[in-house]
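Re: Re: ligand-bound prediction request (bumping)

Still looking for help on this. To restate: I need the protein modeled with zinc ion bound, output as structure tokens. Inputs repeated here so nobody has to scroll up.
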Amino acid sequence: MDRSSPAGKNDRRQFLFHMLKGTALLLLQGCSGLANRTLDYLPPHAYLPSRRAIETAAAVQTDLPKETCVTHEVAPMETVPRLAQMYGVTERELTEANRLKPGEALQPGQKLIIPHPARYKNIVPVYENDRWQYIVIHHTAGKTGKALLVDRIHRERGFDEGLGYHFLVDNGSLGKGDGQLEAAPRWIRQDEGAHCKASNMNVRSIGIGLVGNFNDQKPSAAQMNTLIQLVALLAIHYQIPACNVLGHCMVPGAKTDCPGHRFPWQRFQLSLQQVMPASSMLARSR
Ligand SMILES: [Zn+2]
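Reply:
Sorry for the wait, this slipped through. Here it is.
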């Protein structure tokens, strides 16, 4: 529930703009099918011991200034093919600009030059897996963050596999974009999460973290835009009904206020209803 004071007109306009943009993009993907989904993308098998990526989809797209080079800090388990897709450059351009050997694994924290990126796209790899029945949304409760940092914090907290979420939505801090999506290693490996013990959610839910403390402030419009598109895409793909999309605090047995009192829950649910087809709002049939 959104307990904050009513948003200003500009906030609402900006939110609506992002929503419509997101809706249009999703509809575009839905209508044009293959044209907007890159079905040929397969992460290296070394990262996928038992699951096969069957498709990826572009979520948010941001035009980048031409004739520039971008420096990208590699997040855990990011790969050259995924980065090439994200920035609209070829794998060859990426390997040559950074003098990488063919097939060389990237190291978390490594800085890469992205030569003349065309645009930035959030890439969502999806896999065949009937484990995912819920989606649980969190805030990191910290003002700034990125996958590399949250991974370190979670390891220090005793999570041996690091970053406990499956996805992280950045807020524009620490060199990441506002609304940038980072797919975490647990998602790439299709492993269980470490984000919500209550109701056995670590095992059967997809955990999405948003950088920020939403007891202090609301998520940005760009973060909400990415979140809505991501949740809609995952819910449709894994046939997760809208009633199984929960904030951490809504999970039976969870004793937390995560994702914060100012997370605009009602508006989020409404937006989700608008982008998800009616059939996917029905109860899970399998
Ligand atoms: Zn949480």
